[in-house]
Amino acid sequence: MSDLTKLTLAGARDALKKKEITSTELTGAYLKEMEAAAPLNAYVTVTADKAMEMAKASDAKLAKGEGGPLEGLPLGIKDLYCTKDVLTTACSHILDGFKPAYESTVTANLWRDGAVMLGKLNNDEFAMGSSNETSHYGSVVNPWRRKGSDAKLVPGGSSGGSSAAVAAGLCLAATATDTGGSIRQPAAFTGTVGLKPTYGRCSRWGIVAFASSLDQAGPIGRDVRDTAIMLGSMAGHDEKDTTSVDRAVPDYEAVLGQSIKGLSVGIPKEYRVDGMPGEIDELWTRGIEWLKAAGATVKEVSLPHTKYALPTYYIVAPAECSSNLARYDGVRYGLRVDGHDITDMYEKTRAAGFGAEVRRRVLMGTYVLSAGYYDAYYLKAQKVRSLIARDFAEAFSEVDVLLTPTAPSAAFAIGEKTDDPLSMYLNDVFTVPVNLAGLPGISVPAGLSSDGLPLGLQLIGRTFDEETLLKAAYAIEQAADFKAAPEAWWKA
Amino acid sequence: MSVDQKTVRHIARLARIAVRDDELEALAKELNGILDWVEQLGEVDTSGVEPMTSAVAVAMKMRDDVVAVQNLQAEVTRNAPNSEDGFYVVPKVVE
Amino acid sequence: MTTMVSDFERTMRKREARPEDLIKGQTGDWEIILGLEVHAQVTSNAKLFSASSTKFGAEQNTQVSFVDAAMPGMLPVINRYCVEQAVRTGLGLKAQINLRSVFDRKNYFYPDLPQGYQISQYKHPIVGEGEVVLDMKDGRTVTVGIERLHLEQDAGKSLHDQHPAMSFVDLNRSGVALMEIVSKPDMRSADEARAYVTKLRTILRYLGTCDGNMEEGSLRADVNVSVRKPGTPLGTRCEIKNVNSIRFIGQAIEYEARRQIEILEEGGSISQETRLFDPKTGETRSMRSKEEAHDYRYFPDPDLLPLELLQDDVDAIKASLPELPDEKKARLISEYGLSPYDATVLVGEAARADFFEAVAKGRDAKLAANWVTGDFFGALNREGHSIEETPVTAKQLGELIDLISDGTISGRIAKQVFDSMYKTGRDPAKIVKDEGLQQVTDFGEIEAAIDAVIAANPDKVEQTKVKPQLAAWFVGQIMKSTSGKANPRVVNEILARKLGLSSDG
């Protein structure tokens, strides 16, 4: 087969089962694509030997008609996931050389099900960013370009390596994480599907923590089916994560194609923000029409505290990160810059080890938790967060899913927003409320901007109702019939 | 509320991040920009509202009192920048 | 837990020191106000949030999981048994059990604190207010309020003497469960502070929730000391950290109170600070590393959900509590007619009280108490034996008392028999038999001895007729001539008859 890397995850799975291809061929093809795609900077570590070894083992199983649901399927892993004996840095200088002696629960689930690891994917340092420009290993370049321009665009963030790799055909699917939009926004920027599951659906154990009450693992894939398959393997209760929830993992793939007739879709009026580009608004309207045409009923709902979600997030997330990142102190792993005493060593190590955005958030978080400010900032934010969650709960007493745009714009140029943290933060205006409330959300590519860049629609579901979410996403995918793909300019 | 350079120095010290004097002004400006923006939460009436403490509404699971971890001395020290004889080694701590 | 203490220290405490507990200064009397924060290591197999062993004395970093070493992505999962131990302790302190409590992060940097924060309970502890009743040497009891008890992680250990410029870090202790037990500032003398720690340790040992071993650091105390003129508002306090013996607690308080009084009398003021006690000099000194103002930035740990308990589970723990020292003491007094002093001595260790009860069962309780608290405890102390190491069993000591009660041996001979029992572990009956120590009760034999003494001392016989109390002299002579084995009752009876005195004389 000539276009091995054009297959979807489901397509490759079926071809492997039918023995039309082997995992070794498939994996080899991906490793070749990855080598050719160095200019995209999607991978920070390539584990070629390990990949081929795993592929061979999968082929042996497949040959006997055995193997798990992901047997022989090559995946990319966000560098936030700890992978045993494989460099894991969260794309931070401070984790220089760190090779964990353990495997994250989610990746262990993938290997249990037979998947093959191609390597570790670039991301914003400690997942703090919306453009993948804060990585210690440099920006990832979006495989998409504006029509008639060769300006380098961001792939979104923080899972920019994951979204770029899936869009450019450098893996069948990728793991990602989402704290404020880090799966959905990059998916929207690259014409891929990004699924952020309910908080507690996937174990956080072994994933480098950014903001513990918001972080959630999820997949980025080529289509809805691929993300459904991925989630089926990634999800599940884990005794090692107290916040992971003990409930059965349904067959997510089975719901795809089921009718959405009678499904009640809410349109939150507060998401119609000032300054939103007309083409995003039009895309949203098209999405509404598609769902109506598929038999859904659509009604306007209100989420009155929406405008407070971002400021709430920018108190809660930095507060948690300032504490979560305290362990990077130069004592037990990673970077150490010597000092004349212990405090000097700490201060030098952390100054050299953290990039500007991480430093900014750690300082911000330290400030909002400090004596005299806790009540005014942190406690206040957690109260507003309760109100935001309550808004969603009320909306979901009327409707089954919510439909919104994923991001207020298409992908922007590298360097365009780096000088203004606030304008960067505004990228997550539609995705952040979902994390604050712990809900599942998915971004589906739905059209192109006038510049020829992909745009995404977001569906938000009830807690642990990923099935309804996927069903509706699949309906949008069918209606949108998004077939556009970036030209492989990086191979030139 | 506004952050001055002295406050930036103090919180950088609490966070154990070395900051050069010539960085203080820019950092103070950045933090103030963000703080001014989050001030808008003041508009929200939160009287009688409980702060959100967890994103999942389930009872916390507990572990049994069983030792299930064996000697991991090599594994927990293998990434250390400086270790000796199974100890982590750090610049002298004065009490 | 500095801030919590200051919160309740601000409230005026009712208790006033007794005049004899006041310290005399140049400018008059001073009252000492004491509050203690005791860190008690929870008795458990595994750590509070990980499955590593808590065993004492292992090689460095061999009981450290990835969670304890704060590797990236690691998460805490709470040990149910440690929670139950905290509830058990709370119930033992007659305290309020909070069915909902919250774990917070206390953020600070230290090499033996791998996470960069300690998981503790700040605003919502698992146990609220309770009390401990102190039994003072003079028989008084003093009630000390418990402010709260919460669960938290222990830190690791830094060794500073291995290298001139470097410290060595061992995380074996990192993550071991501690109960921090915070008293109200209800104590007014070093004696009371010592009695408090002693009693608290006794209660914890009865409950089996902490082994109370201060040498191994299972029990440490932070002592908050302030002084004031009686009736005036509370003074500024200093916290003496990590005092690890009951004797040192007393020394540290006495030194610190005098230091503060001296400063105040010279017109100075006390600055609130953390101090260390140096057992070598008997002095306290300011801790350099703690000079920097602390700002622990507590906030609820987002990796852990609130800890919710069911009343049924608490009730089940309550139903399984052992008899505690205060109840045992009251029972020993009412059931055995013991003096409060004897009862207090006995309940200090559950095993001692059990020993006593085994001895006293079906016997003269007062005699049993005298033997157990007197000769028996005296021998244990002298030989440095714990009650578990006793060479004399309760059964044997009971048999010895039986031999006294049935007149086989006298009390004086019994002491001799006991010494032999303690040395050899032999049964008392066997010792008495082998060494021919039984009392002579044979009338003929005793009468002969009496006749011999009377015959040899006719002048004394005459004098006794005038002064009957001289009969005691005859008794002494007769006991001497029978090597103490003559039954004194029989001697008295026959002697009275022979001298013409009434035998009950």
> If you consult CATH, what is the topology of the domain at 5-43 in chain B?
Histone, subunit A
Global Rg of chain A: 21 Å
Low-confidence stretches of chain B are: none
Q: What is the mean pLDDT of chain B?
A: 93
Q: What would the principal axes of the Cα set say about the shape of chain B?
A: flat
In helices, the fraction of residues of chain B equals 25-40%
In CATH terms, what is the architecture of the domain at 4-262 in chain A?
Alpha-Beta Complex
Order of helices and strands of chain A: HHEHEHEHEHEEHEHEHHHHEHHEEH
Counting DSSP H or I runs of 4 or more residues, the number of helices of chain A is 15
The CATH H-level homologous superfamily of the domain at 4-262 in chain A: Amidase signature (AS) domain
Number of helices of chain B: 3
Give an account of the 3D structure:
In chain A, 36% of the residues lie in helices and 13% in strands. By secondary structure, chain A is α/β, with parallel strands linked by helices. Chain A has a domain of 259 residues: Amidase signature (AS) domain (Amidase signature (AS) enzymes). An eleven-stranded mixed sheet of chain A has the order 1-3-2-4-6-5-10-11-9-7-8, sandwiched between helices. In chain A, helix 5 packs parallel to helix 6. Chain A starts with 8 loop residues before the first helix and ends in a 12-residue tail after the last helix. Chain B has 95 residues and is mainly alpha-helical. In chain B, helix 1 packs across helix 2. Chain B is flat and about 55 Å long. The mean pLDDT of chain B is 93. Chain C is α+β, with helices and mostly antiparallel strands and 505 residues long. Chain C has three domains: 307 residues, no CATH class; 112 residues, no CATH class; 57 residues, Arc Repressor Mutant, subunit A, CATH 1.10.10. Chain C is built from 16 helices and 16 strands. In chain C, strands 1, 2, 6, 7, 10, 11, 12, 13 and 14 form a nine-stranded mixed sheet that branches. The N terminus of chain C is likely disordered. At the A-B interface, helix 9, helix 10, helix 11 and helix 12 of A face helix 1, helix 2, helix 3 and strand 2 of B. Strand 2 of chain B pairs antiparallel with strand 9 of chain C.
